[in-house]
Design goal:
Number of strands: 2
Strand order of the largest sheet: 1-2
Helix content: over 70%
Shape: globular
Structural class: mainly alpha
Largest sheet: 2 strands, antiparallel
Number of helices: 12
Order of helices and strands: HHEEHHHHHHHHHH
Radius of gyration: 25 Å
């Protein structure tokens, strides 16, 4: 009887309880290992499929796949990923630059400023933004955002045109890189805000109370005790949002004007991305054109995979930091 009570109270398991635990651990370990192996096999199968479908088109390409700015695989069999990769990276970085400060501010307000009655509904509302279909964001951007930012774009061009991002001549505003970046920022904001909120809530309460006891204001307490603790989590959340923005298809396909040039002028109608080009060109593509699009998808797959690996490495570093400080 003493042994049973000790086991229920958290003591070392012996006899039948230890046997039960060992019997349950084996099947669980097998299932979890099998799930990990299956996931790796699926990713490898996707990579093999993309490579096998892309090789014939790459062999028929008459230009350089990585530097060519022309995209005409259907007739001239000349195509390159340079402009598309540039547009994908630039639009995603713009979205990250816009969304991260807002998401961190929202997360801090929910975790440390808002009353409890307001914090929970506001958190649910932010999370619901992730459930909105991307086509809805795209339609909102075309119908509402594009006409709305035309006047601010012209003002930026006239007053800050010396800055390369706001430079440009001719048509200013409309379907531009900045419009796509704003839509992508709204789409990735819930991801960054949700992760940052959870990280900030896990900040050691003892450190926060110690800072307040020493006379620090609430903002000083956040700056000294919360933000340093949550910095790795915010970085990993931003990288996950970056991967989400790079892979977005429908929203940017509706907004981007589908040009194939490299320019930093985000206020002029020059913008495209790998995902948008695949969505716009797959329906009318020939066999070589379809292989070219799949090859571009392979590049996007590799970029997204690298971003997610980087995020996982930062998360692992965060776990080691927490374990060391425990």
């Amino acid at each position: 009887m003493a042994t049973n009570l000790r086991t229920r109270d958290g003591g070392p398991a012996t006899g039948r309880s230890a046997s039960r635990r060992s019997h349950g651990e084996g099947p669980f370990r097998f299932i979890s290992t099998a799930a990990g192996v299956i996931l790796l096999a699926i990713m490898a199968a996707i990579a093999v499929f993309l490579i096998s479908e892309a090789i014939p088109a790459l062999q028929a390409n008459k230009g350089s796949f990585f530097t060519e700015l022309t995209w005409d695989p259907n007739s001239a069999q000349v195509f390159g990923i340079g402009a598309l990769a540039f547009g994908t990276v630039l639009s995603s970085l713009l979205a990250l630059l816009i969304a991260t400060p807002v998401a961190v501010g929202v997360a801090l307000f929910i975790s440390h400023y808002a009353p409890r009655r307001l914090a929970a509904p506001l958190g649910y509302l932010i999370d619901l933004l992730a459930a909105v279909p991307s086509v809805v964001y795209g339609l909102w951007g075309v119908v509402f955002l594009v006409p709305l930012i035309r006047t601010p774009s012209q003002w930026l061009n006239e007053n800050l045109g010396w800055f390369p991002l706001f430079a440009g001549e001719g048509i200013i505003g409309g379907k531009t890189m900045i419009a796509g970046g704003i839509v992508l920022a709204i789409m990735i904001l819930p991801i960054i805000a949700a992760i940052a909120r959870e990280v900030f809530l896990q900040a050691p309460k003892m450190n926060e109370e110690a800072a307040l006891a020493l006379g620090a204001t609430r903002w000083e307490m956040i700056r000294m005790a919360v933000l340093p603790f949550g910095r790795p989590g915010v970085i990993s959340a931003a990288m996950l949002g970056l991967g989400r923005a790079m892979g977005e298809t429908i929203a940017v396909a509706l907004i981007f004007p589908a040009t194939f040039d490299i320019t930093f002028q985000i206020l002029t109608p020059h913008a495209n991305s790998i995902a948008a080009n695949i969505a716009n060109g797959f329906g009318e593509a020939t066999q070589i054109g379809r292989g070219a699009l799949i090859a571009s998808g392979l590049v996007l797959f590799a970029i997204t995979l690298l971003v997610n690996i980087g995020a996982r490495l930062i998360i692992n570093r965060r776990k080691e930091y927490a374990r060391a400080g425990a």
